[in-house]
Amino acid sequence: MPLNRDRERQQGEGGGVTMTNGRHVRPRNPHFPKPEGRTQYMPEYAEAIRQEMAKGYSFTAACGVFGLRPDNVRRWQGRFEDLDDAVEIGKAQRVLHWEKQLMTAPDGPTVSKSLAALRAAAPDEWREKTEITGPNGGPVQLEAIDTLEAARRIAFALEIGRRAAPPVIEHEPLKSDAAE
Question: Which CATH superfamily is domain 9-26+39-126 in?
Answer without folding.
Answer: Homeodomain-like (1.10.10.60)
